[in-house]
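User: I'm writing a short methods note and want a consistent example. For Natural resistance-associated macrophage protein, I'll paste the sequence; you return only the structure tokens, no commentary, since I'll be parsing the reply automatically.
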Amino acid sequence: MVLDRIKKFWKTLGAGFITGASDDEPSAIATYSIAGAKFGYSMLWAAVFTFPFMIAMQEMSGKIGRISGRGLAGNMKRHYPRWLVFLMALLIVTVNAINIGADMSGMAQAAAMLFDAHNTGVEKIIAFAITLIILPVVIFMPYKKIFSIFKWLSLSLFAYIFATFTVHQNWPEILYRAVVPSIFWTKDFFLILIAFLGTTLSPYLYFWQANQEIEEATILQCKPGHICKLKPVTNDELKILKRDTRFGMVFSNLITFFIITLTASTLFRAGITNIETLKDAAEALRPLAGEYSYLLFSLGIISSGFLAIPVLAGSAAYVISEIFNWPEGLNKSFTKAPQFYSVIIASTVIGLLIPILGFHPVRALFYTSIMYGLISPFLIFMVMHMANNKKIVGEHTNSFAMNVTGHIVLAVMSVFFIATLFIL
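Assistant:
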């Protein structure tokens, strides 16, 4: 009986769950690990603080996509100046490509550690192999199978929860730090907090979820190879969308919470505050937390990358395709949407240059998070505007509570945007 309920619930999980899981990609793992190593449990409140913001932004994005039948870029093109849409698209695609490369580099380092190969040449070969695995899967595999793979990869993030319980934890302090904010008036603290907010509220996730809601509805309502118009959304469908999104964000923030807890209870406690690479973080865990924790941390990096890279490349492809009116969607074959898949290939190959040319991965990951933080206020404003525009969402405009939450996150990200201009 319980097993049947779990299976039924598992089937209802969709774009919201995958979006939440993909938020904990190597870029995020690096940022959260740095936060935990430098400031210990004192950064746990940030995971709790960002939770309602994540729900608000992802619900609005999913709603816009499902109701309008267009992604965020498609709606932006209709309702905003062309120069602004092109600028936003250029920033998202550029940062996504950097993020892909940095993620790939982190994955290659983690895989090399598992094979006990401490050689940059081996890491470059692994990065190339990762590209050869990801691209054929995304391009040639049916959407339903890709979707299923993404869901199962999401579960691998439980590795960070398991790893945390291999280390002694001060749970009373953890609970206290989770609800009582700690602020350190230093440049390092605010840079990490900006990166934390940037990677947790990553702009590419808004584009991804909006388009995935359309893909799911298209598969359910349309026959393969046929052009069809999506039926108007029902209240029941919107309830499912909200439940799926909220569960995804709970899952995402739970993993964030445990990554910080793990690194705080090991690296920070041991005085290892300067993490140069994800390999440094994993290897530092080995003597402090044991072999199991080291392996789980490394496997989490690899599996999260396999989930995140297609999402990053896919969100870039959705943005470009909608702007230029190209056929798009993972439910289409390469021959039906060649430009869409070409953007995915180009983004992934450009990203591959980071590990091949030997750029510093953690630095790239960390500053990618900061760049997301700089883009966020502008995109949040547009998402808020679209989610209240009856020409886009009809009668399903934001509730008062959703608007209040949205305005708070806009204010917070704007303050940090201004602060970043003075700090950097």
